[in-house]
Design brief:
CATH superfamily of the largest domain in chain A: Cytochrome c oxidase, subunit III, four-helix bundle
Distance between the termini of chain A: 55 Å
Largest sheet of chain A: none
CATH architecture of chain B: Up-down Bundle
Oligomer: heterodimer
CATH class of chain B: Mainly Alpha
CATH superfamily of chain B: Cytochrome c oxidase-like, subunit I domain
CATH topology of chain B: Cytochrome C Oxidase, Chain A
Strand content of chain A: under 5%
Helix content of chain B: 55-70%
CATH architecture of the largest domain in chain A: Up-down Bundle
Largest interface: A-B, 77 and 86 residues
Number of domains of chain B: 1
CATH class of the largest domain in chain A: Mainly Alpha
Order of helices and strands of chain B: HHHHHHHHHHHHHHHH
Number of helices of chain B: 16
Shape of chain A: globular
Radius of gyration of chain B: 23 Å
Number of strands of chain A: 0
CATH topology of the largest domain in chain A: Four Helix Bundle (Hemerythrin (Met), subunit A)
Strand content of chain B: under 5%
Distance between the termini of chain B: 7 Å
Shape of chain B: globular
Structural class of chain B: mainly alpha
Helix content of chain A: 55-70%
Largest sheet of chain B: none
Radius of gyration of chain A: 23 Å
Order of helices and strands of chain A: HHHHHHH
Chain lengths: 301, 532
C-alpha cells in the first residue's frame, strides 16, 4: 500500500494513506447488528425465517475479512519500520483506554448486581425505606441468593446454585495461573528466548481453553441439573450476564494470544519491540482481574 | 511566536506532503485525513440537525393548538423520541467531534489524529447507525415511542419490536464514540508539538480531553443498559422486572449514570469553543486560564455523582434525595467560575461583535439562564412540582440550543475562514444570529411558564389555558427552524467562494491554527512546530 508520508526513521509521525478497512468494517458491523436484530425478533415472534442468520453470517464474514486485512496492514507497516516510538505510544494509550472502557462495561453489570442485592430485593421483601414495595407481592421474602422470585410463574427460581468451591474454584486457579504463565512468556520474549516464549504462551492458551471448557460444562450443569437459567429471575440474570460476558472476553483474549503465538512462530517481534504481544497480555490480565471480582461477588459472597 | 505563516515552510522537505487530496467520492470514503473526517462529521451532524429539526417542527405544529389535529398520539411519541435521540447522538455529539477533528491537531501542532484509520471508522459507523435508527420508523409497530430516555418497562415489556434495532443502533453509536474518544486522548497526550505543555494547550483542547474521558467512562455503561434491555426483551432475564426480583428503577440508575455525564459531554466542548472566541474578540487573554481548566475537571468529576437528580420523584430513599440534591447544587460553583471568567475576559476589553462573538455572548447569557433553571430543578422538594413538565423541557433546551448548538455555530463561524479560505457573508450571518436568537427564545422561554403551571411534557394535547404560550412557542420554533436553512446557504456560499481569508482573519485571535494559511493545507505540521 502506498504511503504519503514515509516516516518513522526521520522522526515524523506515520500517517497512513487511504484505507478501505474503515468502510469495510462499518458495513460488516452494520450487517452483523442488523442480522442479530432480525434473528432475535424472529425468535421472539416464533417465526421460521432464516434471513437474520444469513445477514448475520455475511456480516461476520465481512468482519473477519476486515480484521485479517486491517491488522495485516498494521503488522506489515510495523515490520517495515514505519512506526516511531511515538506511534508506539499512541497504540499504548489506545489499548489502555480501550481496556478501561471494557472495565466500565463490566462496572454497569456489577453495579446492577449490587443494586438489586443491597436495595431492590430487600425492598421487595419489605425491609428498608422503600419496603412498601412488599405490597406488590405480600408474601414475598427477600433472600440472597434469591431462590424464590416474587412472581414464580414467570420466573421460576433456581433449584440449586453452583458450588463456588468446585468448578468455579478450578476456573479461578486456571485463570490466575494463566496470568502468571503469560507474564513468564513476556519475560522470555524480553530475554529473547523464543523457545521459552512459545512454551509459556502455549501453556497460557491451553489454560484459557480449559477454562472455557469448564465454564461450558458449568453452564450445562446449571441448565440441566440445577435449574439455574437466564429465566430464573434476577440471580440467573446477573449470574449469566456477568459470567457470560466474561467468557466472551476470555474467548477474545485467547484469540489475541493465539494470533501472538502464530506471529512468534513466524519470527515476528524483537526483545524490545513487541507491543502487539503486550497489548494481548494486558487484555489477558484484565479478564483475569474481572474473574477475581466475579468469583468473589457472584459465587462466594 | 510570530504571526508569519509556517505551514508551507514546514512542508518543503517532504515533497509528497504538499499534494492535495485525491479526487472523487472515494476521497471521502477511504480518507485518513483529519480535515476530511472533520468535514464529514460536520456535514453529517448538520444533516441530522435538519432531520431532528424536522421532527421538532412536527411536534410544534401538533402543539400549535390544543386538541389533536395533525398526527396521532402514537406518531407524536415517536417524534419526541426520535427528535431527542437524533439531536443528542446525531447532531450535537458528531458536531463537536467534527470540530475536534479539524481543530485539535492544528491547535497542538500535530500532523493528524493519532490513529487516522480508526478515526475514519468512527465516522463511517454513524451513517449506518442512523440509517438503522431512522429505519425503525418504517417498521411494523412503528419506531421507538418511549422517549429518548427509554425507561423500562416502556422500552421492554411495552415496546414495539423495532426496539431491538434501536438497541443495536445505540451499540453502534457507542462503538463510534468510544473509538473517537480514544483517538482524541491519544492525540492530545502523545502528539503535542515540543513546548506545548498541558497548561499551554488552548482551552478547547482541554475541554475535549476531559470530554473524551467522560465518553470512555460512560458510553460502555450505555451499552450495558441497552444490553440488559435486550436480554429482558428476548432472553427472559429480569433486570427491570420486579416479578423476577429486578427493578425498573435499576434501569433509571444505570441509564442516568450514563446520562448525566452525557449532558456534560455535550456542553464541555462548547465551553472550550466559547473560551477560544471570547478572548479573541475582547482582544485580551482569557481571564483565569488555570481556574478554567480546574473548573472543567471539577464539573466532569461531579457529573458522576449527581445522576439521581433525574429521579427525585421515582422513589429513592431520603438520604439519596438529599445527597443528590446537594451534589447537584455543587456543580453551580465551578460553572459559576467559568461564567465569571468569561465576563471578566470581556471586562474592559476592546470588544467587537463579529458573528462568532455574537453567538458566544448569547451563549454566556442564555446558558446561564439554563443553568439557573437547573439549579431550581436540583431542589428535590421543588422538583416534585417541576418533574416531567415543560419546565424541564425549557431547562434542557436552554442549555442545549443556546448552549451547545450556539457554541457550534460560533465555532463554525470562527473557523470557517480557516477551513474554506473564504470569508463568509457577514451580514447574512448576523441575520442568522438574530433570527436564531429571537426564534429560540420565543420557543423555549414560554415553556418555563406553561411548565410551572403544570403542562406535562410528551403529550400531544394540552389544557386550554396553555394555548397562547404554545402558539408563541410554535411560531418561534418555525422561525428558528427556517433560519437554519439560511445557515446552510451561508456555509455553502462560503465554501463556493467569497473574499479571500487571511491566515489570521480575526485580529485578536491567538493559537497555532492561525499560523497556517487559509484554507489550511491538506497536511499541516508534518514536522512539529516549536512552541515557545
Amino acid at each position: 500500500m502506498a504511503t504519503e508520508h514515509q516516516a518513522g526513521g526521520d522522526g515524523t509521525y506515520y500517517v497512513p494513506a487511504q484505507s478501505k478497512w474503515p468502510i469495510v468494517a462499518s458495513i460488516g458491523l452494520f450487517l452483523t447488528m442488523v442480522g442479530a436484530g432480525l434473528m432475535m425478533n424472529n425468535m421472539s415472534a416464533g417465526g421460521q425465517s432464516a434471513t437474520g442468520h444469513y445477514v448475520f453470517f455475511a456480516g461476520a464474514l465481512v468482519m473477519a475479512y476486515m480484521l485479517f486485512g486491517w491488522f495485516g496492514d498494521v503488522v506489515r507497516e510495523s515490520r517495515a519500520g514505519l512506526y516511531s516510538p511515538q506511534m508506539d505510544r499512541s497504540f499504548r494509550w489506545g489499548m489502555g483506554w480501550f481496556i478501561f472502557s471494557e472495565v466500565m462495561f463490566f462496572a454497569a453489570f456489577f453495579g446492577a448486581l449490587f443494586f438489586v442485592r443491597y436495595y431492590a430485593v430487600p425492598w421487595l421483601g419489605g425491609e428498608g425505606e422503600k419496603g412498601s414495595s412488599n405490597m406488590l407481592w405480600p408474601g414475598f421474602e427477600a433472600a440472597w441468593p434469591l431462590m424464590t422470585n416474587p412472581d414464580s410463574e414467570t420466573f421460576p427460581g433456581p433449584e440449586k446454585l453452583v458450588d463456588p468451591w468446585t468448578l468455579p474454584l478450578i476456573n479461578t486457579i486456571l485463570l490466575v495461573t494463566s496470568s502468571f504463565t503469560c507474564t513468564k512468556a513476556h519475560h522470555a520474549l524480553v530475554a529473547d528466548n523464543r523457545k521459552s516464549t512459545q512454551t509459556w504462551l502455549a501453556i497460557t492458551l491451553v489454560l484459557g481453553a480449559v477454562f472455557l471448557v469448564v465454564q461450558g460444562y458449568e453452564y450445562y450443569h446449571a441448565y440441566n441439573d440445577l435449574g439455574l437459567t437466564l429465566n430464573s429471575g434476577i440471580y440467573g440474570s446477573t449470574f449469566f450476564m456477568l459470567t457470560g460476558f466474561h467468557g466472551a472476553h476470555v474467548t477474545l483474549g485467547a484469540i489475541m494470544l493465539l494470533v501472538m503465538f502464530i506471529r512468534i512462530n513466524k519470527g515476528h517481534f524483537t526483545s524490545k519491540n513487541h507491543f502487539g504481544f503486550e497489548a494481548a497480555a494486558w487484555y489477558w490480565h484484565f479478564v483475569d482481574v474481572v474473574w477475581i471480582g466475579l468469583f468473589l461477588f457472584v459465587y462466594v459472597l | 511566536m510570530t504571526d508569519q505563516t509556517i505551514g508551507h515552510v514546514n512542508d518543503h522537505d517532504d515533497s509528497h506532503a504538499d499534494h492535495g487530496p485525491p479526487k472523487g467520492l472515494m476521497r471521502w470514503v477511504l480518507t485518513t485525513n483529519h480535515k476530511d473526517i472533520g468535514s464529514m462529521y460536520m456535514w453529517f451532524s448538520f444533516a441530522m440537525f435538519l432531520l431532528g429539526g424536522a421532527m421538532a417542527m412536527v411536534i410544534r405544529a401538533e402543539l400549535f393548538q390544543p386538541g389533536l389535529q395533525l398526527v396521532q398520539p402514537e406518531f407524536f411519541n415517536q417524534m419526541t423520541t426520535m427528535h431527542g435521540l437524533i439531536m443528542v447522538f446525531g447532531a450535537v455529539m458528531p458536531a463537536f467531534v467534527g470540530l475536534a477533528n479539524w481543530m485539535i491537531p492544528m491547535m497542538i501542532g500535530a500532523p493528524d489524529m493519532a490513529l487516522p484509520r480508526m478515526n475514519n471508522w468512527s465516522f463511517w459507523i454513524l451513517p449506518f447507525a442512523f440509517a438503522l435508527l431512522v429505519s425503525t420508523l418504517f417498521m411494523e409497530g412503528g419506531g421507538p415511542n418511549f422517549g429518548w430516555t427509554f425507561y423500562a418497562p416502556l422500552s421492554t415489556d411495552y415496546a414495539p419490536p423495532s426496539t431491538t434495532f434501536f438497541i443495536f443502533a445505540v451499540h453502534m453509536m457507542g462503538v463510534s464514540s468510544i473509538m473517537g474518544a480514544i483517538n482524541v486522548i491519544a492525540t492530545i497526550l502523545n502528539l503535542r508539538a515540543p513546548g506545548m505543555t498541558l497548561m499551554k494547550m488552548p482551552l478547547f483542547v482541554w475541554t475535549w480531553l476531559i470530554t473524551a474521558y467522560l465518553l470512555i467512562a460512560v458510553m460502555p455503561v450505555l451499552a450495558g443498559v441497552v444490553t440488559m434491555m435486550l436480554m429482558d426483551i428476548h432472553f427472559g432475564t429480569a433486570f427491570f422486572n420486579a416479578g423476577g426480583g429486578g427493578d425498573p428503577v435499576l434501569f433509571q440508575h444505570v441509564f442516568w449514570f450514563f446520562g448525566h455525564p452525557e449532558v456534560y459531554i455535550m456542553i464541555l466542548p462548547a465551553f472550550g469553543v466559547v473560551s477560544q472566541i471570547i478572548p479573541a474578540f475582547s482582544r485580551k487573554p482569557l481571564f483565569g486560564y488555570t481556574s478554567m481548566v480546574y473548573a472543567v475537571a471539577s464539573i466532569a468529576f461531579l457529573s458522576f455523582i449527581v445522576w439521581a437528580h433525574h429521579m427525585f420523584t421515582v422513589g429513592i430513599p431520603l438520604v439519596g434525595e438529599v445527597f443528590f440534591m446537594y451534589a447537584t447544587m455543587l456543580i453551580a460553583v465551578p460553572t459559576g467560575v467559568k461564567v465569571f471568567n468569561w465576563v471578566a475576559t470581556m471586562f474592559r476589553g476592546a470588544l467587537t461583535f463579529e458573528t462568532p462573538m455574537l453567538f458566544a455572548v448569547a451563549f454566556v447569557v442564555l446558558f446561564t439562564i439554563g443553568g439557573f433553571s437547573g439549579l431550581m430543578l436540583s431542589i428535590a422538594p421543588a422538583d416534585f412540582q417541576y418533574h416531567d413538565t415543560y419546565f424541564v423541557v425549557a431547562h434542557f433546551h436552554y442549555v442545549l440550543v443556546p448552549g451547545a448548538i450556539f457554541a457550534i455555530f460560533a465555532g463554525v463561524y470562527y473557523w470557517l475562514p480557516k477551513w474554506t479560505g473564504h470569508m463568509y457573508d457577514a451580514g447574512l450571518s448576523k441575520v442568522h444570529f438574530w433570527m436564531s436568537f429571537i426564534g429560540m427564545n420565543l420557543t423555549f422561554f414560554p415553556m418555563h411558564f406553561v411548565g410551572l403551571a403544570g403542562m406535562p411534557r410528551r403529550i400531544p394535547d394540552y389544557a386550554l389555558q396553555f394555548a397562547d404560550f404554545n402558539m408563541i412557542a410554535s411560531i418561534g420554533g418555525f422561525m428558528f427552524g427556517v433560519t437554519q436553512l439560511l445557515f446552510l446557504f451561508i456555509v455553502i456560499k462560503c465554501v463556493k467562494g467569497g473574499p479571500k481569508a487571511e491566515a489570521k482573519p480575526w485580529e485578536g485571535a491567538h493559537g497555532l491554527e492561525w499560523m497556517v494559511p487559509s484554507p489550511a493545507p491538506y497536511h499541516t505540521f508534518t514536522t512539529p512546530p516549536d512552541v515557545k
